[in-house]
Amino acid sequence: MTALDQLADDIRNAHHIAVLSGAGMSTESGIPDFRSANGLFTGKRSFADVVSIDYFMDDAAGFWAAFREIFKIKLAGGYQPNAGHAFLADLEKNHGKRVSVLTQNIDGLHHKAGSDEVLEMHGSLMGATCLFCHTPHDLAWVQQHDVPRCRSCGMVIKPDVVLYGEAVPLIEPAFELATQADLLIVMGSSLEVGPVNMIPLEARRAGVQTALINLSETRLDHAFDVRIEAGIGDTCRRLGDLLA
Ligand SMILES: [Zn+2]
User: Does the annotation count 111 as an active-site position?
Assistant: First the structure.
């Protein structure tokens, strides 16, 4: 039995599937791995220094200028879901599965594809919120103003992306969902970023079947029952055929 057949079987047998998705899920929609923007700041400030709550608090205008550049704010919202996102939405809509998507991505594409249960563990580029009065603002507002301010109180608003130095608010529910599922599939994550990379280890300890679809090897390959080294879209199209 090939790994792909095995994974198709696991999906067939599972009622509740947790999916942990990373940057590799989005690259096929044309979205760059934002971390590679590091090069922009050679010498002075690292990615983690710039995309941080400290920098936002210290110099909100400087923060927003850099943030816009790194995350290509002008383009945000224009990307479309790919075959991988569509496959997960389809498992829910047409195969009767409960699919809990735990994503490291901030592009909103799982929502756009129609997945119902999405935990954006690193937040979202699709909006910004006032830390003072908590008024939410949408992407259009952020795109219209160089240094976006709260429409209610005038304070500079913070992007809904989880910044370095901020807690990852959804990490506990993510661990819970992953350890309660029948199957955990990691898609397009190199599992380099903690604490998210601990999720598959915990799931496996809890007796959950685990699968990894990624273009290259990871340091945590040993934590998976099934490993597929291939692109997400291609793999998901083939899985879709096997499940049809
Ligand atoms: Zn406000």
Answer: no
